[in-house]
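Subject: two folds for Thursday's group meeting

Dear M.,

Sorry for the delay on this. The cluster queue was jammed most of the week, so I only got both jobs back this morning. I'm pasting them in the order they finished. Each block is the input sequence followed by the predicted C-alpha cells. Could you check whether the formatting survives your parser before we put anything on slides? The first protein is the one we discussed after the seminar.
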Amino acid sequence: MAEKTTETPVRIIGSRELHQNLPGILKELEGTKVRYVLTVHGKPRAVLIGAEPYLNLILNGTRASEAVVGLQLSALLGGEFDTVALDDLERALETKDRES
C-alpha cells in the first residue's frame, strides 16, 4: 500500500497504485485527516483529500471563489447548506473582499 509517514497522515502514492486500489483509497479519503500525494514518475502531481475535508478547507479559505466552490460541493454532498449560516458566509466573503 502507499507509503505513510509517521508524523502526518499524508501518504505518497503512485498513479499505478491509485488505479489498482481506487475503491480502498476513496474509502480512506472519507477520513478527515487522510491526504495522499499522487506522484507520476516519482514527482508530485496532485494532492488528494476527501470531499468533506476539502469543503471545510474551502469554507475556511481565503477567497470568495473558494467559498462558492464550497457551496457547490456542499450541494453535491447532499445539499446540507444549514451547516454554514448564510450570514456567516456573507460576512466571510465581505471580509475577504476587503482584504483583496
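Second protein, same layout:
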Amino acid sequence: MPYRYLAYTAEGQETQGTLDVESEQAAERILWERKLTVASLARAHTRLNLAAMFPTVLGPRPQDVILFSRQLATLSESGVALPSALRLLAGQVSNREFGRVIGEIEEDINMGVSLNEAMAKHPLVFPSLYCRMISVGERSGNLGLVLRQLAVYIEKSQVTLSRVRGAMAYPAFVLALAIAVVLILINFTLPPMIGLFEEFGAALPLPTRLLLALTKFSAEYGVFVFAGFAALVLLSALYVRRPSGRRLLDWILLKLPLLGKVNAQGMVARLSRTMSTLLQAGLPLPEVIGMTEETLGNVIVCEALENVRQETLLGRGLSEPIARSGHFPKMLSFMVRVGEETGTLDSHLATVADFYDEEVDRALKQMTAMLEPAMTIVVGLIVGFVAVSVILPMYDLLGAIK
C-alpha cells in the first residue's frame, strides 16, 4: 500500500514522495537507508488512476514536455539544484499525471539515480532519443542547452504532425456528413413513402428500386458484411505485425499516390532534424544514425539508413553512402557533402529539415486543394442519387393520386 512521506536530507533539504510498501515500518526502514530524517509519514489514499490506465489519452501531451524542457533548461542554467527544480515544476504542471511522473523522477534523483535513467523509467513520456540526449547533456555539462534543443525538436515535429492532421480533417468531415445525410434519408424519409406507393399500387422508379435493393441487402446481410470487413481488418493487422507484412505496408505507404510523396518528404525532414539535433549534442555519427533509425518507423528507410551506418563505420563518410542508397533525395546527399567539407554538418542537416518541412506543408496544401473539389463532387453524386430516389416517387405518387 502507498505511504506518503515528508523528510529532510543530511543537508537539511526537504524531500517528499510516495513509497509502495507493505507496512509503515517498511517505509521507515527504506527512508532510514536513504539517510533521510522523517518529518511525517502517513498512508496515502488510493484512487483510480485513469491517466496511468490510458496514458495516451489522459497523460502528458507533447506541449507539456516542450514547456517542461524549456523550464528545466532555464532553472538548470540559473544554478538551481536538479531536485529542487523538479519539485518546483511538479507543482506547476497542469497535467496531474505529468506532475506524478516528475515527482517520481525527483525521488529517483534523490536516491542517486541520474536524470536520464530516471526519465527512462517513463518511456511513454520520455522516449529513448530524449533520454539519450539528456545523458549526453549530463556528461558534457550542457544539460540546459540539450533541453532547449529537445524542446525545439519536439515542437517542430508537432508542427508537421498538426499540418498532416489539418489536411485530413476537411475530407473526413465532409465524408462523415455525407454518410449521415444518406442514413437519415434511407431510414427515416424513404420507408413511409414506400408504404404509400404500395397502397396506391404505383410503380417505383429505377433509382428508388436500386436504393431499396441496396437498403434491403444492407438489412439482411449487413451483419455478415461488417463481420467480414472486421475479420479482414483483424487479419491485416496481424499480418502487419510480421516482418514481411510490416515491410509491405511501409513500401505501400511510400508508393501511394499523393500520400507517398508526403510520407517520403516527411521522413527526410524527420531524419535530417533528428540527426542535426543529435550532432549538436555531440554524439558520434554512427550512434546518431542508429538513434535516428528508432524515430523513423519505416522498415524500408531504416534498412537503407542502417546500410549507411555500416559504411560510416568503415570510414566512408556520410554523403557517398546516402547517394548510393537510392532511397534519399539528391539534395540531402549534396547538403551532407557540403556540411562534411565545411565542418557544419549539423547546421546543413537543419537546413534540409526546414526545406522538407516546407515541402510537406506545400504538398499537403496541394493535396487538400485537389481533395476538396473531388470530395465535393463524390458527395454531391451520392447525396444527389439518394435525393432523386426519394423525390421521384413523390411526383409519381401525385400522378397516381390524380
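Two things I noticed about the second structure. The first helix runs from residue 24 to 33. Residues 46-57 have pLDDT under 50 and may be disordered.

Cheers,
T.
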